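Forwarding these from the shared drive since the link keeps breaking.
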Amino acid sequence: MDCWKGAVSHSWIYPTVIICANGFFTTMRPSESFLTPYLTGPDKNLTIEEVTNQVLPVWTYSYLALLVPVFLLTDYVRYKPVLLLQGVSLIVTWLLLLFAHGVLAMQLVEFFYGMVTATEVAYYAYIYSVVSSQHYQRVTSYCRSVTLVAATVAAVLGQLLVSLAGVSYFYLNAITLASVSLALLCALFLPAPQRSMFFHRREAAEPLPGPAQGPCREETSPGAAAGAPSPQPPAGSAGPHGPVLGVLLQLGRDLRDCYGSRSLLCWSLWWALATAGFNQVVNYVQVLWDLRAPSHSSAVYNGAVEAIATFLGSATSMAVGYVKVNWDLSGELALAIFSALDAGSLLLMHFTDNIWACYAGYLAFKACYMLLITIATFQIAVNLSMERYALIFGFNNFVALVMQTILTVVVVDSRGLGLDISTQFLIYGSYFTVIAGIFLIRSMYTIISIKCRNTSVAAESTAP
């Protein structure tokens, strides 16, 4: 028995299998594609206005309120307790969906779902704390692949059960409850990490990966490099400010250093802007579908559309690895072009009354976003060490969430403009048009600057 425990504690396979199982059952939620029809149907009897303007916005607010505290708590308690918290929150969410009624109860559902999304940071951070750096690439691919598979299986299963077996949305939610309960069970068997990225770095048996010259390797201009600060002590080390304040100060210094790179700042700006719009679209697209083809009188194909969208997203993400492009020169132009395609897709969804055209617009929108977010992820991550990799990604998502909250308050919430769902998608299409315009102007400036620089160098080299 002691030999078995020792093998488990030193092997990367056991925690990888358990965290992948946890990720699969957490993501395998066949009822999620049919949330709006369920809430507006006979089970809950909410109006489409109540769902759009009073219930769904609560998720955004709770996610924003919980994200930073949960991010710090995740690192401080070393991930596993937060994974358990996520499992409990999922179970509470679906128990309320099954058995509670009324607007207030559904708002409570959205609050706990905000807790679920805020705790997702622990999923990938956990595995990096229990396996050695030589296995990072492999376990990351396993963890990401299993969630994509689970999302596809859930969407297909939900669609088949609804369309072919005539299963009610209530029982889809019961299946989801069983799946998330298994996810919590898997989390209980995870080995407890002995180190974390910020608070418990000194306890690590091996150093966290990163270049010898410092945690941020993003190339900067000569002026920025000249002003770079000297290496800082570990964030979790004892100091006069205490561990929490010390971590916050170190995080602030890291953010300042990394965002000093214009290239990283540009990709991060697109990340924040586009992710805010993407989250809004995904959160409210079912309401638009229900307007175009009411679920009480039409066949619902939400699950099939989500399955195809997931497949297209994974395919476009994979295609990025085989495209050879000078992203320093053409990256901003690509952001402008595909953001314009996203804008066109959303405007199509606003102007059309045809549900199939609406589905097609959503598929094109999600494929373009997944393509660009993969490029942005690579461009940011390739020049960052693990500490700043997590920090920059987390901060970009936080900025995106702040912007999404502003959109929700102004456009969606009944205390703001409280616009109808069709007009909301006109706003979202216009929003992506502005993003495309920003990066088109920026790309033209970059291309012209590089050509002028090359012309100047060529003239100097030919001068006598």
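-- next protein --
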Amino acid sequence: MTSIFTHEFNTPIYKGKTSFNTGLYINGKFVEGSDKNTIDVINPATGKIITKVAEATSKDVDVAVAAAHKAFETTWGLNMGGAGRSRLLAKLAQLMEEHQQELAALEALDNGKTFTWAMDVDTTFAIDTIRYYAGWADKIHGQVVETDERKLSYTRHEPIGVVGQIIPWNFPLLMMSWKLGPALATGNCIVMKPSEFTPLTAIRMSELIHEAGFPPGTFNLLTGYGNTVGAAISSHMKIDKVAFTGSTLVGRKIMEAAAKSNLKDITLELGGKSPNIIFNDADVDQAVNWAAHGIYWNHGQACCAGSRIFVQSGIYDEFLSKFTEKTRSLKVGDPFDLDSYQGPQVSQLQYDRIMEYIQSGKDQGATVHLGGDRVGTEGFYINPTIFTDTTPDMKIVQEEIFGPVGVVIKFEDEEDVIRQANDTVFGLAAAVFSQNITRALTTAHRLKAGTAWVNCVNQLHANVPFGGFKQSGIGRELGEYALHNYTAVKSVQVNLGHVM
């Protein structure tokens, strides 16, 4: 018997109630996991249990895949026209908008991000993304290709089939929308695994998907662990594609499992160690504000976080002084306090991982210029941290910390900084600050990253592609480009009466 989670929010910034089923969502119904086990969901602000949700196993993956295949062959896929898919996605976006505050409150409760950020960015962007792909659903088409007058040649962009999607804990609802939108718009069926740390908005979204009227089996949600459910999805012989957002280490495992099974198609949006380059002629005050947003947004738990801040020597002292002042002004506190900028890290595991990196920086000789310590006595709060006096070989310079820890590095000239910026296995994002637009664009073009921001950072839009170079991933999220991840191109050639 599945259970119902009910929670009343009575906070200074939001008051409301939520209530929903905590089972697995398979074939249009909420069900228990095959082993009837549950997963504890922890509030990162307190370290205490919020609720329990059903735990899926590989057996449940088999059931969900069968349901998805049935839907693909009968009610979805090529059996549901683009206009129909568009209407259902638009209805889902409308329902998300009607429940936006509830979804934002669940994100803040489950993930630890502030309610304000969850409202202004996560939920708003998620709604925009679903609505954007609703507009694409009836515009998936191929081309007529001219060969000669005796033949008709054309292409079809057909849905791939059953898609496994594995989403992370740092932006649970937003990453869900990035995966749902293009996959459903192009006619694929989905078996999705949310993070076991942050499953609540995904489960609530399953109810909204059901309410919107998507046929049973079109979307299936399995709450479970990576080494069971994630592994089963990655290696399943009847899943035609897998899409994953998360660490590069796990991305490698998924790619290996996909290759060893049925050579399924993959898209991977992985880690980053993004450079943020600030030249002498930059607007220092604006660069400081953007740099703080670049590294401390979402508690540093962003794959595109500007964690390596390169500052040219002529303004280094001024920048560091103002950046320190700005960082000190950021309030770390309860996600439901109006003036909180940064909430807790997502889990004890992530808190410990970040603190280990901070200790490694100290051990390797870097200077803790600011922060580097715990906030409070409960929950997983860490002060925003600035390191200086680093060297390129240090772990805090080379490895993704995924927390509110930035390194500020002095550089002398353009060639020097481009060399340092590209000296990483990652290539997700980068930023350049300069009032000289020629210098800014020339630098942006030379950086090995899938996204380059100029005089801004962490600016993402539903219609602009996002993805990485090098070990930061394969394929692109968002925009028209994401549609290519979910279609297979078929060429059709018709003989118009020519006799051999």
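The longest helix spans residues 115-136. The two ends are 66 Å apart (CA to CA).

- D.
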